[in-house]
Amino acid sequence: MRLIKLLLTFLPLVFSASGNELTARNYHGRVGIPKAEELRKAELLSASRIVGGTEVPEDTPIAHQAGIIIILTTGWTSVCGGALVSESKVLTAAHCWDDGTNQARLFTVVLGSTRLFTDGLRLVTTKVDTHPSWNTADWIYDIAMVTIPTIEFTNNIQPIPLPTMEDANRDFSGLAAVVSGYGKTSNAQNSIPITTSLYRTTVTVIPDSDCQVDDFSTHAGQLCTSGEGVVGTCDGDGGSPLTVVVDNSEILIGLVSFSLGQGCETGLPSVYSRVPAFLGWIEANL
């Protein structure tokens, strides 16, 4: 994740600031597959880490964070993130399962670990339900529910509370939010050595009116965070959680979808699927 000067992989998807079409299509080919191989090699080689952002300590992983290792129908491996929401359900981005060019065959969900390819509880599943309105033309309904074998919670593996129905119309603008992921920490990371650990950073939720670039405008199912100070998400973070504290409780409000700019350090906003907008669908699939 782009936590140092730095969207969730997005990031995995990118919207060109020149007004071109969303270039999220073929996320796995452009980002996920290369990133998966880099992470695997780096962990095996104990490669050095890039300084920046906040590295999550190995002994205290983010309890709701899920890493997702993706096997595509082509046999290639890709990567994404997700959020644990119950003992058998993980929320992620729909593009992690189907990006319009590549179709996933199975997920290995990794819980309780700051590394993707080593350690933690590892659960294989093929049960992934994307939102029925998801399509790769507009990327608006970029959310999916992953069903995993039922687990027991531990100190290092806990679900993130979902928003309430009262939060459905809440304006989170101005709130400090935390986004976490296993993705890149800078544009320079196109080969190993790279960071292999889970990172987190604090970003600010911004009004929809501040999340405009040329032809792009947000949908009710999306929300944005500011890229000011060059912070945000980067390649490999797709589907990862965005959380805020409301009434003294940390809740899930977003899943990394894409960023408004080419590269990780543009200073432009990152775009997320707005979790409160999908509460009805989420609860029907829990």
TrEMBL record:
Alphabetically ordered keywords of this record: Signal
Domain Peptidase S1: 50-286
Keyword Ubl conjugation belongs to the record: no
Pfam families: Trypsin
Molecular function as annotated in GO: serine-type endopeptidase activity
Any single GO BP term: proteolysis
CDD domains in the record: Tryp_SPc
InterPro entries assigned to the protein according to its UniProt record, in alphabetical order: CLIP_Serine_Protease, Peptidase_S1_PA, Peptidase_S1_PA_chymotrypsin, Peptidase_S1A, Trypsin_dom, TRYPSIN_HIS
Keyword field contains Signal: yes
Signal peptide positions on this chain: 1-19
Protein's name according to its UniProt entry: Peptidase S1 domain-containing protein
Organism of this sequence: Pectinophora gossypiella
